[in-house]
Amino acid sequence: MRLLKTICLTIVLSTSSAHSQEEKSSDSAVVVITKYGIGVKAGFNFATVSKGNLDNAPDARASIYVGANYEVPIIPDVFSVQPEVIYSQQGFEKRYTINGTRHKSVYKVNYLSVPVLARYYVVRGFSLEAGPQFSYKVNQKFNRDETDTEILTMNDANTTEFGFVAGLTFQFESGFFVNGRYYRSFKEIIPNSDAKNVVVQVGLGFKF
Fold it and tell me: What's the pTM value of the predicted model, to 2 decimals?
C-alpha cells in the first residue's frame, strides 16, 4: 500500500511539473501572464470634453465601444506591447433648465481609434497600461435643442485627433479580462473651441 501511494504521488508531482514547465513558480513571487495573442473587447464609454472656450462645462455622454487587440511579449511574464483597434462612440451632452423646463443637446462623434499600449504586469494577472492613441472620425451627429445658443456644429469636428491613454487590466487564466481606462486628447474636438475629448472606459474582453 505504501508503495502504491508513493507511485501515485510521483505521477501527480510529475504531471504538475510538466504542466507548469513554461510558467514560473508562484512561490518565487513572480508574475504569470496567462495568455498572449489576439483578444476582443467591449464595454461602456463615459465621454465628454473639457470646457475650453465653451459657455458651460459639458455633461457626459454614455455610449459603448467594441474592439480587438494583439498582445506581444517583450519580457515574458513582465512587459508587453499591445496595439488595438477600437470603434468608440464619444462626444458630449449639454443638459440645462430654463424656467423650470429641462433641455438637452447631444453632440455625437464616433471614432476608429488605434492605441498602442505598453503593459507592465505588477502581480499575477494584473497589469498597468499606458500609451498614445490615434483616432479617425468615422461619423457624427448633432441633436441641438432650439434653446441652445452655443454656436457649435458637428460639421466642424476635426477629422483626426491624438491623445494619451492609461488604465489597468485584470486577466483570468480562462482568458477573460476586465479593463478600465482613461483617455484624454491633446487636440481640440472642434476648431477654436479648446475643448478636448475626455473618456472613461469600463469593459470586458476575452483573450484567445
Answer: 0.77
Beta-sheet pairing, 126-143 with 160-171: antiparallel
Burial 188-208 (b: 16+ CB within 10 A, else e): bbbeebebbbbbebebebbbe
Cell of 152: 457649435
**185: Cβ–Cβ under 8 A, 6 or more apart, which residues?**
135, 161, 162, 163, 196, 197, 198
Predicted confidence (pLDDT) at residue 16 exceeds the cutoff of 90: no
| pLDDT greater than 80 at residue 72 | yes
The CATH architecture of the domain made up of 31-207 is Beta Barrel (2.40)
Residues making up the chain, counted from first to last: 208
Where do the structural domains in the chain lie, given as residue ranges?
31-207
